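# nightly structure sweep
# worker-07 picked up a monomer target from the shared queue
# config: single-sequence mode, recycle default, output format = structure tokens
# input follows
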Amino acid sequence: MSDEKKQLQAEVERARRELGETVEALAHKVDVPARVKEQAQETRLKVTAATDNAISSLPEPVAEQVEKARRHPGAVAAALIALVVAIWAISRRNR
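# output follows
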């Protein structure tokens, strides 16, 4: 009887452990915001690695300018907006 009791207790412990793992896995699947954050972080790391690889393959003067642009994205955006406005103004004037 003692062996049966020990075996039954071992089976109960195994079942509890498996149930705990299942509940944990289900809780992770249901936690959509956490999964989205994980995926965003993974994507961010992949994009950063790809960008770094692309920049390292550029000629040195170009790579330096790209690095400057990465450090000052607001300045790049302002320059692009100014360029678009200038093109728009020129196209309007030529009509």
